[in-house]
Amino acid sequence: MKGLFGFLVFAGYGLPAWVYFRSGLFVVGVACVLLAAIWFLSFQLELSTYPTAGLILGMGANAIATWLHPHPNMLILGGLSILSAWDLARFQRRLSLASPGDDVADIVRRHIWRLLAFMVSSGLLSMGAMWFPLKLGFGVGVVLFVIVFVGLVQMTRKLLLVGRDSG
Amino acid sequence: MKSTHWLSLILLILLLLGLASLNQTLVAMALPVGVYLLWGVLSLPSNVNLSVSRVLSEERVNVDELVEITVSLRNDGSLLDNLLVEDILPGGLVLEKGSTRHLVSLQAGQQTSWKYKISGKRGFYPLRSIDVVISDQFGIVQDRQSFPTDVQLFILPPVVKLKGISIRPRKTRVYSGEIPARSGGLGIDFFGVRSYHPGDPSNCINWLASARHPSGLYSNEFEQERVADVGIILDGRERSNIVMSSTSIFEYSVEAAATLASTFIDQGNRVSLLHYGKYLQWTFPGYGKIQRERILRALTGVEPGHSLIFAYLQYLPTRIFPPQSQIVLVSPLVHDDPDVLLQIRARGYRVLVISPNPVSFEQENLPDSHSVRLAARILKMERNIHLEKLIRGGIQVVDWDVSQPFEQVVGRLTRTPLLVRSMNFGGP
Predict the structure, then answer these.
(1) Sign of torsion, CA B73 B78 B84 B89?
(2) What is the DSSP annotation of B125-147?
(3) Fewer CB atoms inside 10 A, N or C side of chain A?
(4) pTM, two decimal places
(5) CA of B139: which chain A residue's CA is closest?
(6) B301-337, pLDDT tens digit by residue?
(7) What angle do CA B282, B283, B285 make, to 5 degrees?
């Protein structure tokens, strides 16, 4: 599982890093590689706080890289890898709660197959979505924008509430 | 829920940026996040029908005895993946073997069970529920449920088997027992001589006395042996019980109270228990095995505590004990206790004091230095003065150095003639 995690982390950060390097943004590219290394290290050390930060930073790195106009599939794969790595990190934390007598191997095997199924299906869906050009009318665009904005505000409020309750 | 929040936030930000900048790649990047969320939420089991049971190998055990707990789960609903089962043990119980937490996947209709062993300190432990965390296939939505398993565990104080303890209260009850009743009748020990009554067996006739008094015959009388009322008072006052690191002298008091109660009940006496500490905990007088179980169960839950009212023995409600009965006080004693005990003795009660020695207990747990030895010597002298005061007042005292086994110290009471005397009471 560690090998798969390492591959996903370095793919998730490596693809946007390569885009940044190609665009001459060496510092940002190096930062991406460093972030990948930190996440991999925290996984080895079983630190529980880093995965969410790694997910946000990784998705951010991939999202920002889209404005540098690389091949879109590259960043879609990067985002998907980051998401899968985050899932594996959380899965490893859940596995640490198992007792020595539990059938961990079966649980791991099933989870990996499930994750691969998700990666393939959602990857194909995203790449397929790129074939259909996004043509929205102004009104539809504004309505969608407002809905998403309201959702974002609500989600931020909820996150703050959860943080206050748990802290 | 936090994971779903973070994912939703990322999804919304990607969509917002994608729509605002008409960046199709961002919208496409948001799709896997949406699929992941949707997969998680949809795979959360909707039909949870889980049967959880917990069986204890024994519900009442002694301290340090192992108890095997068997936890069984049966899934009568849909598939449950990544099921985390947590049996949270109350404080005081220690896991000796196995694990209280398990991660399992249960198919519909599947059953699983596991065992683990625990031990613990004296106490009453209600094991009310088992926590089960049900999650979706990716573990982003988690639902913690408690399943009731109403079992309880009593870890009883150690009880040492004693041959018997000699007590001699002024008043006894009507049933035959082992305590001399100060009245003539059927018995073993010689009590006196009285004039012959028709029906007296011939081997009871005192021929020597009859020969001296030709006017009539005389018979030997023996002392009746009966059961008595015994009230055990366990001193649970915080001011008299010393706590050193992880041990407390109170635990020795509890051990002594449990052993005495068991021994007195075995002798056929009517025994009651009063825990005098934070509040009064009274176990009504009774006979037999059921009463022993009641007292032992009462002793599992007792803890020393502080109360403004019950900080002094003068508020001891002695009237709850039958007049002229036997009172046994188990207490390390503090300086103002002897006066109260002498008052109780003056009211006609027979008083036996079992006193775990707090000075030697504290000295054992302190580093050996000249100042500690000197302080211990002064305290022992002070304590001896108090104990001597009690002995002079007609109170039986057992000064128990807790480094010695209780049965060894109190064993002398089983052989002691029925005189008021002190036990293990010597110089500093």
Answers:
(1) negative
(2) EEEEEEEEEEE-TTSSSEEEEEE
(3) C
(4) 0.73
(5) A91
(6) 899 998 888 888 888 898 899 998 999 999 999 998 9
(7) 120
